[in-house]
Amino acid sequence: MSIAETDGTVRARAVDAVTAAKRGLTLALLGYGASIGLSVLAWLSITLIPLGIGALTTPPVMRWVRAYADHRRRLAKEWAGIAIPTAYAPPPAALRTGGEGMVDRTMALVRDPATWRDLRWLSVDVVAGSAVAVLAPGLLAEGVFGVLLLTGLWQPIVAASDGWWYGFVPVTGWATAAAAALLGCGWLALALRYNPALIRTHFRIVNAQLAPSAEQLLARRVEKLTETRRDAVDTSAAELRRIERDLHDGAQARLVAMGMDLSTIEMLLDTDPAKARALLAQARRNSVDALGELRDLVRGIHPPVLAERGLGDAVRALALRLPIATEVTVELPGRADAPVESAAYFAVSEVLTNAVKHADAELIRVDLHHADGSLRIAVTDDGRGGARVGAGSGLAGVERRLGTFDGVLAVSSPAGGPTMVTMEIPCVLS
Amino acid sequence: MRVVLAEDLFLLRDGLVRLLEAYGFEIAAAVESGPELTAALAELEPDVAVVDVRLPPTHTDEGLQCALRARRERPGLPVLVLSQHVEQLYARELLADGSGGVGYLLKDRVFDADQFVDAVRRVAAGGTAMDPQVIQQLLARREAAEPLAGLTPREREVLELMAQGRSNAAIAGQLVVTERAIAKHTSNIFSKLGLEVSDDDNRRVLAVLAHLDQGGRRAR
Predict the structure, then answer these.
(1) CATH of the domain at B175
(2) Which of B60, B92, B145 comes nearest A309 by C-beta?
């Protein structure tokens, strides 16, 4: 290794160590401040539940605790690359209103193992987590201080006190100050070497406390699957009902009418050719209408372009049918499984329909690409914003549809726009 | 006039053969798959090909792809594409080379035999036949609406028929007015849209289609 390279590594290490020290300081301050504060509040609030007051305070306090824990999870991801899964139970579906609702919510929180995990983590963070974190800035500061002693800093300090120790070195003169500085260098070397590891250790502790057990994850997964399966079954049953009704009232009825017309025509052919001709025209019109209805129906079941060209071109074709200018960018190196393609297509279709109906947009952008094992779709419009999932919006349906494939939907739509709907479906391309 | 026909469903293929023969066309070949179509187009050099979009073996847009490939090898080879559904996306791909001699129609249009045969003849002669649904989709777009706002309802009607590829005479026939009246409408439309007037029917159609397809976006 050349000198320049060594120099480069040392500098990179130093930068890392200083960054780690700053992070350690932040984490320690958080631990000694927010963790203690929230821990006290949470325990106080839970203790007061039997008195009634706790039922009012626990939900907001636990909301803070969860936000705080989520913040730490984010830091774990950003600073140490540790992804800590969350497993909070979803809020109870049927809440009573008013005070009783608060009680329901509180009881749900108390029953959720994740709540107790959060509280346990808060306590551990105050003691172990912060201690580990504070070591990183501590080593660095102590080391720098030790080296500075050699600049003569030891003189005023020793003069002011009666027998002063730096670490295990009793500083009395230049010689011992030099020994202290050497020890300081040792601390610095340790900081350079271990500071980032200390931060990682902190987050490992966080992970050990916050991460749900395999059993809990599994239970959550089963709950989720049960829910999405029910949604999938409901949706497909509703779809089949719709198709049945459309066929029954539409194409089927028209074919019956055509058959009747044809037999009438047969009868009229000799007696009243003029009337027969008029009926023929009507029969033809009926056949055209029946075809049109079947075409619309087919498009609703599985769009022909999707079958012929795949998702990218199907979305392009869809965009061309919209009254609003729509730019489509597709970067898909292969095709996803047919069910995924179909779900993605209808999701995009619904989001686009929503945008056209409600957004009052000038331009819509659709971006489709595949990254990190997921199909990612973003639909952006420059309309008036204010789109929301739920409240009977089409977006809730899209979310349910994607749920069957473990897909997720996120909406960012501030009032005044722009609206961005992102969807992600885990899948492989072939 | 010699026709190569590609349609995988026997009933429809048979019906088309009978219809075209009844109108005096000679069926050079009636095939049922993409590879057969490619071979027939290369060997038989027909005056026009009538092709279903979806063909075996892939049952995707094989027919369209074969037609596009054949036109790349023999530019201007007249091709009329039939489908159960029409997509602007496909229309755009067919029109992309700008050489004319293309048609793109819903299969339902065959019900009106006179008009269908007229479309086949027009395509064979290097003209254009676009399905009314394609044109309506083009006109329905907001970006197209702005430049079209200045047209009178009658001019809009004429524009729609013109974009389908109809000649002045055919438009006049359909709207029951004189050909001269249509000529006046067309020149009005062209000046309102800022297009250059062309005596060549086909060039006129292509200009209108290109304008409808891209006009709004260029204006942005």
Answers:
(1) 1.10.10.10
(2) B60
Using one digit for the tens of pLDDT, what is the confidence trace for B168-220? 888 999 899 999 999 899 888 888 888 877 777 777 888 888 777 765 443 33
User: If you measure CA to CA, which chain B residue comes closest to A285?
Assistant: B111
At B208-220, the pLDDT tens digits run 887 777 654 433 3
| Nearest-Cα residue of chain A relative to residue B215 | A325
Any idea what DSSP says for residue B194? T
Contacts of A297 in chain B (CB under 8 A): none
> Can you give the residue ranges of every domain in chain A?
3-210, 217-301, 309-426
Whether residues B108 and A284 touch (CB distance < 8 A) is answered with no
| Chain B residue set in contact with A, beta carbons under 8 Å | 53-54, 59-61, 83-85, 87-90, 92, 107-108, 111, 137, 140-143, 145, 216-217, 220
CB atoms closer than 10 angstroms to residue B153: 7
CATH 3.40.250.10 fits A309-426, yes or no: no
- Closest by CA to A105, choosing from A116, A90, A85, A126, is A90
Choose among A287, A309, A324: nearest Cβ to B142. Answer: A324
Contact B172, B182 (CB under 8 A): yes
Q: Which residues of A touch B60 (CB under 8 A)?
A: 307-309
CB burial class (10 A; 0-12, 13-18, 19+) of residue B37? buried
How many CB atoms lie under 10 A from the CB of residue A335? 14
**Number of structural domains chain B divides into:** 2
Q: Tell me the residue length of chain B.
A: 220
Q: Are A317 and B84 an interchain contact pair (Cβ–Cβ within 8 Å)?
A: no
pTM for the model:
0.72
